[in-house]
User: Fold these one by one.
Assistant:
Number 1:
Amino acid sequence: MSDFDVKTFKIPGQHYLDGVLLGGYSPRESIEMVKTFDMFEDDCVVSAYPKSGQTWTLELLYLILHYDNYSENEETDSLLRTPWLELGKIDNARIRELGEVPRPRVFKTHVAAHQLPEQMREKHSKMIHVLRNPKDVAVSYYHFYRMDASLGRFPGTWSQFYEMFMAGNVSHGSWFDHVLQFWREYKDNKDVLFLHYEDMVKDHAGAVRKIANFLGKSLNENVAEEIVRRTSFGSMKQNPATNFSKYEGFDYSVSHFYRKGKVGDWKNYFTVQQNDEFDEVYRAKMADSGLNVDFGE
């Protein structure tokens, strides 16, 4: 590892779109497809910067919308039930497959705010944007970079990854740019719900009710409790449909997809100098945005 030069590290299929680094798993043509994707008024898109609690939110949302027939497809992989719009090469078969997802459809995306489907505003489709404090995001992303083949299984140290993260030289670019673009564009849009990962951890049942209310869905107490049970960290980590254990690209000897799910794990990684530097950048970038996150301090 001592011979590793972070400056020469590249992820498979690395390319740039609008100045943002992306991996081969999200080709340019796939992201362009997202912009023109046909939407329905009852569609819901879950957007997020990577490692922000998006997979958890997708399962919560799917259960709220499809609880009555969930038992029929609970063993179906989550990527089939809640497809990732820009994942992989887009062709006619893929577009047809996305169009045939049972309504109300739930989609995942990591695209930037200006790359979202243009029909979302016209059709008043719903969107949930998940936010997580960037220090925990950075630590979670570091471990994900280490175990995921599509991100090159990063062989470097935490400090080297931290420098990449701060420079925005990771897939999907700068956390600050990604999050602030969504916030400024959609914070006053009634069809968009901003969810904070830390709030979801503190009040899991409250998150279920908040999402249900946003979607105009009424849940009885027994259903709400069952959704909470099915979407607990332990349940999702053990569920083959949600834990990605069948995906050969992940090296679970390095890290699990579901690692800790806690708030404040960054304290075990950030040095005093890194923390001071990060706080200075955070204050400058987030000034006057009105957006606050919980670092678990």
Number 2:
Amino acid sequence: MAAPTADEKYELITRRLQEVLGGESIKAILAEGRSPKAYWGTAPTGRPHIGYFVPLTKIADFLRAGVEVKVLLADVHAFLDNLKAPLELVAHRTKYYQYVLHAVFTSLGIPTSKLHFIEGSSYQLTKEYNLDNYKLCATVSEHDAKKAGAEVVKQVESPLLSGLLYPGLQALDEEYLGVDFQFGGVDQRKIFTFAELYLPRLGYRKRAHLMNAMVPGLAGGKMSSSDPNSKIDFLDSPEAVRKKIKLAFCEEGNAEENGVLSFVEAVLIPISELRLSRLAGDPVLEAGTGDQKPFVGEGAPVGTVFTVERDEKFGGSLHYSSFKEMKQDFEEKKLHPKDLKNSVAAAINNLLEPIRKAFEENEEWKKVEALAYPDPNAKPEKKKKKEKVYHPPPPGKGKNVTPTADPGVVPPEAQGAPELGQAAVELAEQQPNLSVEGSA
């Protein structure tokens, strides 16, 4: 298989995207025979879920086109995001994200020689970066900062100042990571245009921006780490996956806000095509881990990219060569939600199996997971009571010891009893060698 041309690389880099800003600059780099540099960032807050397959599948295209990709684990951004986690916890979550993301790329057979993980705090706390941040603060209006972060920074009744800093920091990342383009969801478009406007005002060049479409969550709407019903975790059990898919919103004939159908388009079909390319001898792809069979059933015609398994009594399996065909069948109610869900659940479990296995075989990853996401229902360990060690008192001391009376001295309680007083006098007369203090 011949090496891809500059045009073929550009097609690979930009396919399936919703929008590209500044694509000409990427074409120019490819025409010069250079490898573009890109960055995709994620703030390590909640547990990463299978929605991450959407950008990671696209990043696979970048790597196949020879792009050098930097994955920014934005720990400082995570801390600034409404204080969702203290810095100590963010540090553990950053390590957890790195384990998960690396396991995903390895499982897909994506070459990682040009993939670099970078922690934001490794350069965002430097003098130079902070001086540039102050320059932005002296240039950017409150209105522009608030507008840029409107789709990304959580809007609350009493917003924190950190929300205004967020867009500027993300813009500066492009310069300090030394990239040619930034990649993200279309929800970040306002931050991207903010960067295009303000980086040149600091004397830095404008970068290109590539945007994925947003994929709905399982319950409809945005897939969120904070909503357990809208997402599937990378380490969810096969039973949990099937249960969540069964409960997912997938109304018959309704393709809008349909997370199950959208996941097929954004993840399952691209991965199936990637596996078909490997079978065809793509020299860039590696072996991958787990079952690398495309999501294509037995006896499927050539060109099929996804098969919906179905019992013969219901007409047999449905084979699709494009998502457009599948969507049309779904809208015309030729494809039933139950059959779609069963095939999607099986495909997701196929993707997650090698990631679960990697987790189970990695003790360090398990320790990091426990520290990053401690069980909120775990009861705190009770402090052990300090065992009391008994130390006997010296002879003649202690509360239960009867005090010894001095010879010749009548105790107060005996002063009113003449017979006791007389006994004391007689005792003293019998010991003439002892003084009143009892010393020799």
Number 3:
Amino acid sequence: MYVISIVGNSVILFIIKADPSLHEPMYIFLSTLAITDLALSISTMPTTLSVYLFNTREISLNACFAQLFFIHSFECIESSVLLLMAFDRFIAICDPLRYASILTLPRIGKMGLVCVLRGMAVMLPLPFLLQQFRYCRSNVLSHCYCINQDVMKIACSDIRVNSIYGLSVTLLTEGLDSLLIFLSYVMILKTVLSITSHAECLRALNTCVSHFCAVLLFYTPMIGLSVVHRRGEGSFPFLKIILGYISLLVPPLINPIVYSVKTKHLRARIIRVFVK
């Protein structure tokens, strides 16, 4: 899964960078998603591979906090990128005449920078809050990597502040992003259904299929994992482990495949490169 994820996203980045005809907002957002997926895979890779290849199951607290920060930061950034991609599809379908004037390269760069800064800023307090806790229970995590919900459960201190902060950040980042994505799709559907031509309607919806799949792949296991972790200790342990792997390993694996298959111009460029 790691090999396919890294190769797939690297191919997407190479094709977009090498082909000037793909230097458009839609593909720039796609390359940003590929970079984020690569970073997310690399964040979980050290501890996961150390368990499966070397049977090393120990990690220091500081290393765990650092991994936790990067995992949650890149999750937040990916959520923001998916929101930007929804905005891109919304403008392309609902206001196509202003598409080029709204999504200019400088504006896209600024939006990308805001996404990165937001992800890093809101997750930066988490490691420092966790460092204040006293850990006296069995320090065994549910996953092969460190995430906030998992680490909090092995602390013997009062975790209410960290729990409230984590929930607030989730609602104000992934929660708000998913709501805005939903609203953008409502507006897209409203516009598409007003198109009289059946062929044009299907063509417009087809441009959203890849992004819709990426949204489902990202948010569904994340919401499920959050719910399972809040059910209490010992609740659905197997489901907790499966959702943990799906939420961090499957999106970077599937996203490049979905976009390569469903995006006609990108698929054609990839085939051309490999045929040559």
Number 4:
Amino acid sequence: MGVLNNLSTLLLLSLLPPALSHVVEKFSDVPQCKKFFLEGTTPNLTGILVGGTVQDQKRYKLICQKYKTAYRFATLYDTTNSIPVFSAYTFTGPPTDPRPDQPWMIEPQLNRENNSPEMQKDSKEIEYQKQAGDNDYSNSIPIKGVNRGHLFPCSHAHDLDTQKSTFTLTNIVPQVVSFNNGRWMNMECKVQTTLKLNCKDANDQIKAYVVTGAVPSNNNTLNNRVNIPDLMWTAYCCETSQKGKWITGAYWGENTNEELNKKELVSQTLSELYKKLNEHYSDVQVFPEKCPKGDILRALPLRDGDVYDHCVYDDDCVCSSVGVKGYYLPVVLVSVLVMMM
């Protein structure tokens, strides 16, 4: 009888799904991780990720980013360059809390497969072989002029724990300080406003799918270990309140000093983004076919016209002033001027 009971137990265990792991073979292996991709469809980057399968299993790792027992977003990580290829997440509204003072974290399972699936606080005593550590960014500003640039930005995380989860170094690339704090941050805030005002799911809740990536350089590194990318890009797709109508948008910018390139990042189509990324990869596709490649939301449908299209934002994406013909005016004053027109 005892043997039968043991056999029954083994049979039952064999029918259970595999234990959820932080580093996975496919994002689709974890239902809570699959949801960060529209229709569960992951991006295609020939030679790296095709049909949801990593082409070089030793170099590239799929991370279901787990923090405080919940999956927060998904990352494709390049262990050779020690930077993410992209991070994918769902935008469900702007943060409800101020930016947290959060210690930097790492992915334990990149060090050893049977480590905890929860991201952990970085240890400054260890040099990680397959990922960047906080020590790699020591003196990064005076030496290389770069700081820690989020792919999934804290300003796009709706709740406090998800905000904190973005502070894993597997979500970070070395980004030129003036670019990170200038045009790129302004773009992130503009996208936040766009998604907040235009994206609604079947339950009339804010929801958009976003993928943000970095194209590595040939030989520009931080601490002789961490690649400093040449190009950063982002794309979004969402359904609008007009059910069945989907909108998309994309941005990219060279990771260079703002003094060399002060031109504002402008919204592009998916087709334009694919063309740009195909200079570095091939057969790129970020979203499934229902996301229009050529259509784009060129102007924000705001009550105040396009006031927020020219904002100067603070770290919490609050529009403090608006550029008007070379001048910066308080946003309230500009809103009054627009209403008087």
